[in-house]
Amino acid sequence: MKFGSVTDPSSVDFTLPETHSKTLELLKAHQSDEPFKVYVGCAKWNKKDLKGFYPRGTKDELAYYATKFNSIELNATFYNAPSKEQVLTWKNKTGSNFKFFPKIPQSISHYSRLLNTDEKVKAFVDATVLFEEKLGMAFLQMHENYKPKDFARLEEFLKTFPKGYPLGVEVRNESWFTDQEVAERFYELLEKTGKTNILVDTAGRRDLLHMRLTTPVSFVRYVGANAPSDYTRLEDWVLRIGEWRKAGLQELYFFIHQNMEEESPLLADHFIKKMNSALGLNLKSPNDDKLF
Fold first, then answer.
1. Which of 49, 56, 99, 197 is in the most buried spot, having the most CB atoms within 10 Å?
2. Distance separating alpha carbons of residues 259 and 2, to the nearest angstrom
3. Does residue 33 lie in a domain region?
4. Given the DSSP bridges, would you call strands 251-257 and 71-74 parallel, antiparallel or unpaired?
5. Is residue 3 part of a domain?
6. What SUPFAM superfamilies does the entry give (predicted)?
7. Which CATH number does the domain housing residue 135 bear?
């Protein structure tokens, strides 16, 4: 993942910003005794990207991947909307506790820019609901040049998006966050429509770490910089997630990217083991021999 990459990661201040005050208010309002649900995975499962991850002779990469992780950030659906048959094929290759997090196709977000997309949205939803219990949350990622001047278009899209279908939203243009009035209006829209505000932790775009949750779910897209700091950054996240859990966080979706994706499973393994130790979880790590 090249978005937000920098030539010299050592020059970046990777300190996590303070948690937004309204995030703490929201989490407190959703405190529950329900078990903490955590899903950690990579963005891709193909052998070309995850070099060295698969044993020699592995014939079905997704089936193997699903024995090592409990989820996948399904970026493949961004480039081509999946058919119902494709969804069922993916679903049937994974275990009962595995979840898919499909990305809204670029034909909706980038090419149509949310205009006249009803039929495309219906086709995407009708196909991906066939994941059934294995559907985690889809996510809408807008182009970096999509600005608040088109707020009304986004508002209409979210208000008319199929009810009951879980959706996260990621906006990338800096003007969504640098203008406080715009930011608060955006966050309120997500809260009112029940949509999850996605956090992006990448070296070159620290503004995307707004630390504002709009549901009791944290959806984090973490991008390493192929530097030693990638590991300490993850440890900082473990501490922050522990704080959010105590405050009332119910679910965590944490997906790890790298500029050189073959290192993603190594980072994920480190993160999972730190999470297990700090929060008393029993997440499967990629280096364990047990299945999920």
1. 197
2. 6
3. yes
4. unpaired
5. no
6. TM1631-like
7. 3.20.20.410
Q: Which pair of tokens denotes residue 15?
A: 């300190």
76 token code pair = 């493949």
Q: How remote is the C-alpha of 47 from its chain's centroid?
A: 21
Q: How far is CA 9 from the centre of its chain?
A: 22
Q: Of the candidates 84, 87, 151, 85, which has an alpha carbon nearest to the alpha carbon of residue 113?
A: 151
Give the structural domain span for 82: 9-279
Q: Is the pLDDT of residue 290 over 60?
A: no
The sheet carrying 99-102 orders its strands as 99-102, 71-74, 37-42, 251-257, 217-223, 196-201, 167-170, 138-141
What CA–CA distances, in Å, run from 185 to 49, 148, 181, 197?
A: 38, 10, 6, 13
Q: Which two tokens stand for residue 140?
A: 């809408």
- The residues with which 74 forms a beta bridge, in sequence order, are 102
Counted domains in the chain: 1
Tokens of 20: 């937004």
Residue 180 lies in a domain: yes
Q: Is the pLDDT of residue 226 over 70?
A: yes
